[in-house]
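Troubleshooting log. The previous run stalled partway through. Resubmitting the same two chains, unchanged.
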Amino acid sequence: MGIDPGSRITGYGIVDMDGSRSRHVASGCIQTASNRPLPERLKTIFEELTAVIQSWKPTEVAIEQVFMHRNPDSALKLGQARGAALCAVVLTGLPLSEYAPRAIKQAVAGTGAADKTQVQRMVSLLLSLSEPPSADAADALAVALCHGHTRQTLHRLGPAALLAGRRR
Amino acid sequence: MGIDPGSRITGYGIVDMDGSRSRHVASGCIQTASNRPLPERLKTIFEELTAVIQSWKPTEVAIEQVFMHRNPDSALKLGQARGAALCAVVLTGLPLSEYAPRAIKQAVAGTGAADKTQVQRMVSLLLSLSEPPSADAADALAVALCHGHTRQTLHRLGPAALLAGRRR
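Second attempt completed without errors. Output:
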């Protein structure tokens, strides 16, 4: 399962990896109304992500790493949403990995410089979706696919590499 | 109960308000080791705050409002810790209020420009503590006292004022 947290929209995407083949299981967005108080919005993110995990029972979760943000105000907002999403995951006890944005784009689009539209198109193609997912769901599916591919490679390298490659 | 969230240390303080009299019930700090992975640290904040709420059963919770931060990187870190702390509170269903830093300092030290040491000393004095609490516990107790005093005033003004004064 991949998660793309945001203060307004948190995307999630679940894929089933069978060898090098990947299948789309579920994806969607958790939207929070910007006119609602912050605690209520964080509660929505936490509770809906917990519900998604409980219904689809993913075995591993991956999330995009956040680097230096330009705007302190949006960094705080993203941080709060990310904190709520991470809480939902860690309380389930599922293994959690983080990937750099460039690594995610590289994994699905072949280049770390791919834009949102390219990621959306490639995720659609890789998972043979009849219509492209929303941008946030696509980003989450890209994180899931990146984790799936990395895991495949690391599994081939053996369990020690898997452990070293997993950043909790 | 007042909470002062931080990425390394989250302070908490519980006071009992009886009319205009305030009594110290409990206070302390939740420390997270900076060399541990972020999800684990957020889990610690969430679980320990939940445990504090369960043992002391406060009836209302207050937290400091965060304004524009200078540094985006520390804003993200603070945001994540604050997100975890807010999740712990909202899941208990307790009413949550936010207060501006200046309002908190004003409430305990009589001036919005008070520094950390003044807040620590005044909290000690107001609660007749035999020794001053740590800076983070003192900040959390100051938030609790600010909420207690504001609540008192608003209660005298009637329930409509209480509702208007409470920022969720």
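Takeaways: Residues 2-166 of chain B form a domain with the Nucleotidyltransferase; domain 5 fold (CATH 3.30.420.10). The longest strand of chain B covers residues 21-31.
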